[in-house]
Amino acid sequence: MNTNTQNTTKRDSIFLHSNSTNLVEFILSVPSAFLGRKRYFLLFAILLWAAAGAIAQETITVTDTVKPVEVKPEEPARTSYYVEAGSYGTKRETDPPGYVRNLGKTGIAEQLDWLDLGLDYRVRGEYRNNDIRRPDSHSTDYPILYKGKIYVGIRNIIDPLRLVIEMQDSDRTNGQYPLDNRDVNKREMIQGFAELYFKKAFGTDALGNNRPFMIRYGRQAFEFLDRRLIGQNLWRNTTNNFLGFRAALGQEKNDWQLDLLALRPIIRIIDDKDYADNDRQFGAAIGHWRKWSDVVTIEPYYLALRQDRNIGHRMIHSPGVRFYGWLNKSWNYDFTGTYQFGDDGERKQDAYMITAEVGYKFQHSWKPRVSVFFGYVTGDKDPNDDKTNRFERFYGFARPWSGDDYIIPENVVTPKFKLEFEPVKGYKIDTGYSFYWLQSATDRFNNLLAGTGNRDNTGQSGKFLGHGFDSRLQFKPVKFIDLNVGYMYFSTGEFVNNRQDAANGEHSGASHFAYIEMTFNALDLFIKKK
């Protein structure tokens, strides 16, 4: 008998005992002299029999109505404060990256638990029809993109010192347009740093997790927040990276954490050595409060970008805060607000970005989730006044805004509707519909027409950029290969049509983008199943 049933039975017994005791006490209250007389003895016997029958009947009635309490299996004890946001496209790349394996945990060489190793290769074939990023209104292109990565990391064995190096080779063939550093960056070190890692620098949290301190210097690639301001841009064929310092107080498992950045962005050169941009400095302080992560995780942050006068002085300050969490097993949310102030040359920076997503996950074997997203990012209102309202996107990841890479977080207003589900285990499908407007009709649409003729200072070209449908299927045909197949349709709006007409005398009306992508992880070939 389980504990809940025992407690219920005990309460029933107390109730019955109380009622029966009152009745017996009444009977026993008859003067003992009466019991000594034969004429009252029969009355006493009848009352006692009636009481016994009543008690028996009551016992049967109550016992029959007791239902066993269903005992639910106990949930495993919580070991981490970290909760994944669950919003679309915001899951950050891990550190070390997701393709990296610890050799001691693969079954390849258990004694090498101090060595992290990764061997990853990706190839993607694309079909792009009427790509609005190109200078032509009508075009068809079939580029093939290649990206190979190698990662080697050493930890534990010489702690507190840890070392990492990661090389990447990115290339593109079969395209009809000139090569650019979005697609091509040959044989480059994207990470190469030394790190000091102190496991218990700040003791432990309430769950018993170590609260470490880490500081690293060198070339680094990472992601923070929802990736819209700081991201590696993993979809793109080349990677955002930096040179400088990164420090962290605490880790993801802790109830609080603080990340500090002081860096220079790396300038990607197509077929020569990359180098740090000495004219720009990027800094950040990013907090993570997870004490209440069963309901909300709070991430306050401050980002700053300084650009020296020899390339045009800028000093952009950007405080913001992100709130995300799960209200229950079905409802989740993700809200972010960012404000920007400072100097952009002779003009004052005054811009902001707001993003909000609410989703509902059905408790079904297909794991369906529907969500609504809204993004609002300011653009410059008047090119002739003393303020610029164009939002500085820093080094963010553009793909959550649009799967075809047309939209970035600058001068845009967009509602998006998404559906995600998994009809067969391991086969993930997401699809959605999006609408896009310029926030300011007098500012540019950055990715239109290769960056030329993409602004109408009069505002007479309109605001509507277009709307489109997107879909994607992700699955693993074998354990060491990931396949990603997708299609996007974009119907151009009045602004795009008017600017294409002004530049080329014609407009496309719609564009199509389809792709097949295969990622091969060499180490997964040798991992032994447990």
* Strand element count: 22
Q: Provide mean pLDDT, rounded.
A: 89
Radius of gyration, whole Å: 33 Å
Strand content: 35-45%
Helix content bin: 10-25%
Contiguous low-pLDDT stretches (5 residues minimum) are: 1-66
Morphology call: globular
Please count the helical segments: 4
Order of helices and strands: HHHEEEEEEEEEEEEEEEEEEEEEHE
Q: Structural class, from secondary structure content? A: mainly beta
Q: Could you give the distance between the termini?
A: 36 Å
Main β sheet profile? 18 strands, antiparallel, barrel
Topology:
Elements (H helix, E strand, L loop, with lengths): L2 H26 L3 H4 L2 H28 L35 E2 L12 E15 L10 E2 L2 E11 L6 E13 L11 E14 L14 E8 L21 E8 L6 E12 L7 E2 L3 E10 L7 E11 L6 E13 L4 E14 L2 E15 L7 E9 L9 E2 L23 E13 L2 E11 L26 E15 L2 E12 L1 H11 L5 E12 L9
Parallel strand pairs: 15-17
Antiparallel strand pairs: 1-2, 2-3, 2-4, 2-22, 4-5, 5-6, 6-7, 7-8, 8-9, 9-10, 9-11, 11-12, 12-13, 13-14, 14-15, 15-16, 16-18, 18-19, 19-20, 20-21, 21-22
Characterization of this structure:
This protein is mainly beta. It has four helices and 22 strands. The chain has an 18-stranded antiparallel barrel. Strand 8 and strand 9 form a beta hairpin. Helix 1 (3-28) runs antiparallel to helix 3 (38-65). It is globular. It starts with a helix and ends in a 9-residue tail after the last strand.
